[in-house]
Amino acid sequence: MKIMKGAMMPWTPALLALLIIFSAAGAEAFWPFPDKKQETVLIAEPSGAGLTLRRAFELALANAEVIAIEQEKLKEVESHFYTALDEVTPDLNFLLTEAWQDTPSKGEQTASGSDGFSSNVLRRAKPEAKFTFSQPLFSGFKEIAAINASGADKKRQTALLRKAKLMLFLEVSRAYYNLQEARQNLLLLNQMQSTLEKRVKRLEERVELGRSRKSEAEISRADLRLIEADAAEEKRLESVSRQLLEFYTGLDRIEDLDEDFPPLELKNDPSIYTAKAADRADVIAARESFNLAKEDVTAARSNFLPKGSVDGNYYTRRVGFQEGTDWDLLWKLEVPIFNGTGDIGALKEAESRRVQAELESKRLERYARTEIINGYDTLIAWISQEKALRAARDAAANNYRIQDEEYGLSLVSNLDVLDAFRRSQEVALRWSRASHEVKRKYWEFRAAQGETVL
């Protein structure tokens, strides 16, 4: 093999052009792998032995097929980087050929001439070995647009993966607090059932002594059956919520839940939270879709610009009169003049998609701010309801206790006591729902701000 001395190798201009393209596009767009950043931790791990919300979500992440699909989509998008980079990298191959042909007889060879060209053409075998090199130099910025588009697509898919995790967390948190609420309601109803059973027994004794009417005992039994009916419904809700949570986590059986709700710390000005709208996963995805559409416009415009490339060969073996020629280069420049109206239509279509993507990005960011405000107002309202219902629960329980004591002194009727009992039961169940609704709305509000949970 012969090596040229004192001359620039044919692939040197291509490498310089590649470095220039990398510098112009920016290094970040070329790196296809997601950054390893520490995510915000919103749930503290308690020391209890029960299942925490954080642990439930960790198990759900490991078992959720939808998250695995989104992760594979991200890998697919990352592969687009290499496809785009292939358009600006040179093609280098080693080609070995040997051709055979029929040659004329000796007399015919003498008659046809003995010059070098003729003797080379009339060779029976023509072996050749060479390195082939091809490098696109300029294609109207189409290659740069493709590389930048792969970077935007990677960021968009990363944001979609993050949003999928947030949606999964909201589903897990709803199932978690639905199960917790159903179990708390069952506990409340069991306590009420026990209390009412004791009251029915006392009424039966009073009926035997002639101090109460039978109708009072029957009314109490009717209330007891209503509580049993409510308990049956709560058992159904407990079973449904538990099975759903077991589906998300992959656990065979969920027994105890360990409360891990963080302390509520809300600022009075909701505009502080709306500033986070720009960092929401769906807003980021829409913004990157807009960047992707802009690169599509650049690629469509490239069809109207000249294209240049260089092809080279470096020979390691040649025969005949070309044996002394070690390399050659071919530079090509293609200037489009008229290729029909297809390129014009493709450009107009790309520009229309860019405008649509820009409008969608603005709409989503505005909607995100509205959703954060609504989530804030909803959470504040449920916090106020929970506080009022907690006070009402305590007051209703105290009222029932007082009515029961006064009934023993014959100061009030049994109907008054039963009415106080029903009110106490109703308010306690309403408070239970409100207290768990606060937890559900809290995580919805945090998710509306685009915050991660692990």
Describe this structure as you would to a colleague.
By secondary structure, this protein is of the alpha+beta class. The protein has one domain (54-448): Outer membrane efflux proteins (OEP). 65% of the residues lie in helices and 9% in strands. It has 12 helices and 4 strands; from the N terminus they run ααααβααβααααββαα. The protein has helices at residues 12-25, 27-30, 53-63, 65-85, 106-112, 116-121, 142-209, 214-249, 271-274, 281-301, 342-408, 414-448, and strands at residues 91-100, 125-138, 307-317, 327-334. It has a 4-stranded antiparallel β-sheet with strand order 1-2-3-4, with no helix packed on it.
Question: Helix/strand-derived class?
Answer: alpha+beta
User: What average pLDDT do the residues reach?
Assistant: 81
* CATH homology-level superfamily: Outer membrane efflux proteins (OEP)
Please give the number of β-strands.
4
How is the biggest beta sheet arranged?
4 strands, antiparallel
Termini separation comes to: 60 Å
- CATH structural architecture: Up-down Bundle
Question: Domains counted in the coordinates: how many?
Answer: 1
CATH class equals Mainly Alpha
The CATH topology annotation reads as Outer membrane efflux proteins (OEP)
**Helix content range:** 55-70%
Note the run of SSEs as H and E: HHHHEHHEHHHHEEHH
Gyration radius (Cα, Å) is 39 Å
The 3D shape can be described as: elongated
Strand order of the largest sheet: 1-2-3-4
Residue share in β-strands = 5-15%
How many DSSP helices?
Answer: 12
What are the segments in which pLDDT stays under 50 over at least 5 consecutive residues?
1-47
